[in-house]
């Protein structure tokens, strides 16, 4: 746990993919998180699989970010090398062995209420991957970003499989841009 987590109340911000002013607040909070962890290796862990449209959000974001080659930003989970239920534990162990005290932001798709579809949520604390589809996976990250891609509550696997790619793609572009702008603000200082 970082000192930053000890001295502030946990925050949770939510913005619809088309709400520019709300996304500006997410970007500011992301910048603050990067600033507070400036001396630590920054790791973006994008969780999901391209075998399910709804669950492809993480690998799409990872692919966008990895193509930018941002200096000293370590990205795991892309379309070429996804991080999912079968390799998540090994990936977490690899990150812990590769970096001293990394600052990890975990990213995943999630299901929610119908009026929250298309929303991006940034929260302090670890991500609970697989919770929406009742999988028992380890929590990961000091902060997490989730994209609500469809409605939850019934037949979650089918819902994820039948999520519109257009929404997932737009959310992946928006989240990648938020991370990029936030990270570049502090890396250029």
Any overview of this molecule?
- It contains 6 helices and 6 strands.
- With 189 residues, it is an alpha/beta fold.
- The chain has a single domain (12-188), classed as Rossmann fold (3-Layer(aba) Sandwich), CATH 3.40.50.1450.
- The two termini are 25 Å apart.
- 42% of the residues are buried.
- The model is unreliable at 1-7 (pLDDT under 50).
Task: Please report the total strand number as a whole number.
Answer: 6
Order of helices and strands: HEHEHEHEEEHH
Name the poorly predicted regions. 1-7
Helix content: 25-40%
Number of helices: 6
Largest sheet: spatial strand order: 1-5-6-4-2-3
What structural class results from the helix and strand content? alpha/beta
CATH topology: Rossmann fold
Give the termini distance in whole angstroms. 25 Å
Assembly state (oligomeric): single chain
CATH architecture: 3-Layer(aba) Sandwich
Tell me the name of the CATH homologous superfamily: HybD-like
Q: Calculate the mean pLDDT score and round it.
A: 90
Number of domains: 1
Q: Round the Cα radius of gyration to an integer and report it.
A: 15 Å
Shape: globular
Largest sheet: 6 strands, mixed
The top-level CATH class is: Alpha Beta
Report the sheet-strand fraction: 15-25%
């Amino acid at each position: 746990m970082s000192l930053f987590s000890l001295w502030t109340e946990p925050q949770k911000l939510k913005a619809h993919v088309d709400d520019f002013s709300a996304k500006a607040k997410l970007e500011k909070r992301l910048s603050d998180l990067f600033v507070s962890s400036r001396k630590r290796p920054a790791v973006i862990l994008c969780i999901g699989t391209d075998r399910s449209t709804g669950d492809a959000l993480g690998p799409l974001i990872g692919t966008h970010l990895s193509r930018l080659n941002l200096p000293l930003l370590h990205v795991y989970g892309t379309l070429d090398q996804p991080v999912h239920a079968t390799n998540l534990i090994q990936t977490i162990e690899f990150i812990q062995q590769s970096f001293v005290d990394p600052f990890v932001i975990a990213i995943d798709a999630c299901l929610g209420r119908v009026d929250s579809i298309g929303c991006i949520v940034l929260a302090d604390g670890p991500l609970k991957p697989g919770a929406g589809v009742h999988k028992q996976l380890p929590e990961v990250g000091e902060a997490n970003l989730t994209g609500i891609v469809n409605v939850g509550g019934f037949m979650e696997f089918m819902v994820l499989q039948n999520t519109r790619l257009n929404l997932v793609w737009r959310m992946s572009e928006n989240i990648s841009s938020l991370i990029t702008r936030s990270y570049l603000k502090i890396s250029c200082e």
